[in-house]
Each structure stands twice: as structure tokens, then as C-alpha cells.
Write a structure and sequence with these properties.
The protein contains seven helices and ten strands. It is 31% helix and 29% strand.
Length: 217
Amino acid sequence: MLEIERVRTSIASVEVLRDFTLSVGQGQMVGLVGRNGAGKTSLMRTVMGHLPTTSGRISFDGTDLAGLPKHGRAALGIGFMQEDRGLVPELTVQENILLPVWVSKSLKPRARLDLVYGYMPELLEMRDRRALLLSGGQQKLVALARALAVGTRLLLLDEPFEGVAPALAQRLADVIGRLRAEHLSILVSHSDMNHAQSLYDDAYVIERGANATAAVH
């Protein structure tokens, strides 16, 4: 489904990805593990088109992403949960979830909300609260919900467990695990293998922007 082949990416004059290779198959859940600054966020931002590649190839279901703008990648059914959540503080929970759906030509808001609330019913109860009034963990749930609302085929989840209390981290892990039922392809990045490692079909380790090891769980 997602094929990343020997990709190189630079920010200014600093190379943040160095011939990095990774594959996520149809319906697979893959872990991307690396310490802070290893290149995890840079990889996901590169897939989404926020950072340009200098060499290598990224394809999604056979489509080369190089020529697609950021919104064109989302239109393919790719949902992106940013590490910093990226919510609009003054908008409500439901408005934040629907933001990418509103600009889609094919997604039906009611159907996507029903799916999201089915997995995270606690968000239904707080749907009219502004994002700035939520805890950090609650904001992570909303960010995951927004990614799921638009990500009909692939989810990129950047550090979903980072900075979250243990109870909410477990809740996030439970929701992510249940998403297997949707036959989604999912790439999850984090700093260690303590969270939900039993869920992964495959795991890649990134060090200084390059492949370190890969292991199947």
C-alpha cells in the first residue's frame, strides 16, 4: 500500500532522511521506532508532502506521490495525526474532526462522524467543547479522530502516546488496535516499543534518518 524507497529529504542544508526504506502492506499495522530527532516526524511530513524529497520514491497503492500536492495526498484517503496535534483552539471538537472532511469531494460528514464516535464515544460527549479547553490527552484523541475521519485507507500516526498519561495512552492503544477491523493500513511512530508492540505486523527502527533494523512482531 505505502512504499518508501531509499528516500532522502533535507531541511535547509541538513539531511534528515538518508536512503530510508519502509513498506506498509494492505491492512498492516507497522511501527516506526526511534529516539527524538531520529527522523520519524520528517518521514511522515515527507509522505504528506510537507517536506520535498531530494531522491528516492514514495508510492501509495501504485501512485507516485511526487507530483501530488498536500491536499491531493489527503484526497487519496490518507489521514495524518500530527505529533503536536495541530488542532484549531477556537473550534469545537466536532469542528476540528470535520475540517478535512469539509474540503473533501467524496466523504460524507455524517457517515465519518458516526464511524469516529463509534470508536471514541467519549468525544461525542465533548463534541461542543472548544479544543483549547481539553487536556493534552483529550486533544490527542481528537487528533486521532480527525485523522480517522479522512483516512479511509492509510493512517499516519506520529507519536500518539507521547506526553499522555498512562490511562489515556492505553485508551489510544485500544482504539488504534480496534482500527484493524476497518482493514486500514497504519503507520505508528514512537520513541520505544512499550506501547502496543504486540499489535504490529512489522517494525522499523530509524536512526539519524536511516534504517537501523527491522523486525516482525
